[in-house]
Amino acid sequence: MTATRAHETVLSFSYPTERRARVVADALGPEVGEIDDARSTASVDREGDAVRVRVLADDLVALRAGVNSWSRLVAVAERVGPKHD
């Protein structure tokens, strides 16, 4: 995704194992594109044991809303996925 919006942030979440990171990233995958709106968009990627959510927005209010939404989605993915490898 290319940055075409005025504001950007990257949320990074580290996990004890690569498998745990994969479970969280896979749970988030279907949400990419589904909760975007006219003022913000997001992407999710995983590298090793880290999951990164990149939020792009036209203004700071939309950026804050995007960060809040994705933070909640990550928290839910962490709670519902398997905890032990």
TrEMBL record:
InterPro entries: CTAG/Pcc1
Family: Belongs to the CTAG/PCC1 family.
Stated name of the protein: KEOPS complex subunit Pcc1
Species this protein is from: Halorubrum xinjiangense
